[in-house]
Amino acid sequence: MSHKSIEKLAVVIPNFNGADFIEEAIDSLLQQDMSADIIIVENGSRDNSLDILKSYNDKITILQNEKNLGFAGGVNVGISYTIKHGYDAVALFNNDAVADSEWLSELVNSIQDDIKIGIATCCIKLKDGSILDSTGEFYTTWGLPYPRGRGKSVDSYHEKEFVFGASGGASLYKTALFRDIGLFDEKFFAYYEDTDISFRAQLAGWKVVYNPKSFVTHHQGETSKKMVPGFTVYQTFKNLPMLFWKNTPRNLLLPIGIRFFIAYNLILLKALVSGKAWPAVKGVWYSFIYIPHTVHQRWIIQRGKSVSTNYINSVIVHDLPPNQTGLRKFRKIFTGK
After folding, report:
1. What is the tens place of the pLDDT at every residue in 121-139?
2. CB 194, CB 164: distance < 8 Å
3. What are the C-alpha distances in Å from 268 to residues 45, 240, 280, 294?
4. What are phi and psi of 236, to 5 degrees?
5. Kind of pairing, strands 61-65 and 37-43?
6. Is residue 220 helix, strand or coil?
7. From CA 61, how far away is CA 37, in angstroms rounded?
8. pLDDT of 219
9. Which of 158, 199, 239, 312 is the least crowded, having the fewest Cβ atoms under 10 Å away?
């Protein structure tokens, strides 16, 4: 890691069928109190997104994909562009989000002067502005990630602090981090790819910081609604095993793995009995298909690990995600708590 001030800055927005809200996202970025190049990755949209984007002329840069590469593949196109063209940092931004005018400058202030900070994340509010969507991402000893603060009041997290991970929907990354650990894993396509890269960053010695003075509002799940039915279920069952096996340090594999095996199979059982069997089973099947990829990536990631397992154990949450009420009831049967 080398210290370098952030002078050349870009914001990358992956867009898939976002015609209903992409203008609001871009306009909020054009009104930022610091300058940054806006790069839209047109991810194979079938609506009139491209016509809208072209109306901005030279105010934005458009990179076109022939097909939808997902969030991971889409942002990788933009990130690769920023690395090639010598940018110091790149912010990722959802096409259904709207940024406060100081969103970007506050993130830059968070990341600017500390060599160890590779990612800065913000306060992401739901569109009504009173409830949180995310203030970062957490990983748990049950092998399940979750968005920090989701569903709580926006006043709940008002301290600048280190967190485990960042939401890919509105966070700033040093390009040096991508040069160090690689880009997003495109096998994830969407869901948990941001937790994966945060986990990899933590293992390589980078830090992630949350700045409550930086905030955006987010129309949660708008892009996912445009995908095929069962998309989220399929992605969840495909990606959770990859996230666990790639990143969990060797000495934590057994204690986290036992809990993860129980949790994963109980969540699978719930999907099977609630009419979501096909996307769930498909997701499990693809998690097996991707085993060679996962094993290879684990070898690379763990070989590059530069922090202690005790440190990783200290930054993950030793509990279930707050929304896992069914698993909590199951745990109480055996532990009484």
Report:
1. 999 999 888 899 999 999 9
2. no
3. 32, 12, 7, 21
4. -65, -50
5. parallel
6. coil
7. 8
8. 83
9. 158
The rounded distance, in Å, linking the Cα atoms of 160 and 110 is 9
Question: Rounded CA gap, 250 and 322, in Å?
Answer: 26
Angle (nearest 5°) at CA 274 between 270 and 275? 130
**Total Cβ atoms within 10 A of residue 156:** 14
Give Cα separations from 16 to 91, 96, 116, 170, 225 (angstroms).
Answer: 18, 10, 34, 17, 11
Q: What are the angstrom distances between the C-alpha of 191 and each of 68, 94, 194, 236?
A: 15, 13, 7, 7
**Collapsed DSSP state (helix, strand, coil) of residue 214:** strand
Percent of the chain with pLDDT over 90: 87
Reported pTM: 0.95
Stretch among 7-11, 29-33, 66-70, 333-337 having the lowest mean pLDDT: 333-337
CB atoms under 10 Å from CB of 121, counted, come to 29
Considering Cα of 221, then 118, then 146, then 246, what sign does the dihedral take? positive
Q: How many CB atoms lie within 10 A of CB 259?
A: 18
Q: Which two tokens stand for residue 172?
A: 């700033």
Q: At 283, list the tokens.
A: 């997701």
Written as six digits, the tokens of 121 are: 């994340």
- Please give the full DSSP string across 75-143, using - where no structure is assigned: HHHHHHHHHHTT-SEEEEE-TTEEE-TTHHHHHHHHHHS-TTEEEEEEEEEETTSSBEEESSEEEBTTS
Q: What mean pLDDT, rounded, does the chain reach?
A: 94
pLDDT at 287 over 70: yes
Estimate the crossing angle of helix 231-247 against helix 277-289, to 10 degrees.
30
Q: What does the pLDDT look like over 85-113, one tens digit per residue?
A: 999 999 999 999 999 999 999 999 999 87
